[in-house]
Amino acid sequence: MKATEVLMEEHRVIERVLASLEKAAGDLNEGREVRPGFFIETTDFIKGFADGCHHVKEENVLFEAIVQAGLPREAGPVGVMLSEHEQGRAYTRGMREAAQRLADGDFLARGDVVRNALGYVGLLRQHIQKEDGILFPMADQVIPAAQQDAVWDGFERVEHEETGEGVHEKYLALAEKLEREAGR
Q1: Largest CA distance in the chain
Q2: What is the per-residue pLDDT for 116?
């Protein structure tokens, strides 16, 4: 298995949560009751899994290998992906803040929850499509075979040293919980 295939498998988990988030945001937008904690827990998943397990592998390992292979960091595909990661973090902060206001009784925060949630869903779906369809195949071509092994080792190091034992599994369970709650 290539290191990029690990990232694509993680994309499939993220897409499941995106579908649940889209459903819950749509329900909230249509006036149906959705527990504000659903959105707060979704931001926990995003911070813990999408950023903490997934983006850290991309940013600290894969993108570094791509840059070492000769592609620029600040421009081109790597620069676009890094910028989109930051945009996603901004949507996540906005969603969490709005969901907390909603939990505190601010009914008007519903619109901010929906806007940030759907903005995040749209951004990440396009982002994943670009990575799976363009960046990862390109990485597989430009990163030499010997360096591919180092990327794999870097992913393992991230999982064990930075992410921590059992954290990946914790967020997989949270993804399933969010799917059930959203009725997906």
Answers
A1: 56
A2: 99
Boundaries of domain holding 124: 3-182
Report how far residue 10's alpha carbon sits from residue 104's, in angstroms, rounded to the nearest whole number.
33
Rounded-to-integer distance, Cα 102 and Cα 121, Å = 20
End-to-end Cα separation, the chain, in angstroms: 30
Domains contained in the chain, number: 1
pTM assigned to the model: 0.94
Split the chain (184 residues) into runs of 10 and give each run's mean pLDDT: 92 98 98 96 96 91 94 89 96 98 96 98 97 95 91 89 83 95 84
Q: How far apart are CA 131 and CA 84, in angstroms?
A: 11
CATH number at 29 reads: 1.20.120.520
User: SS3 for 160?
Assistant: helix
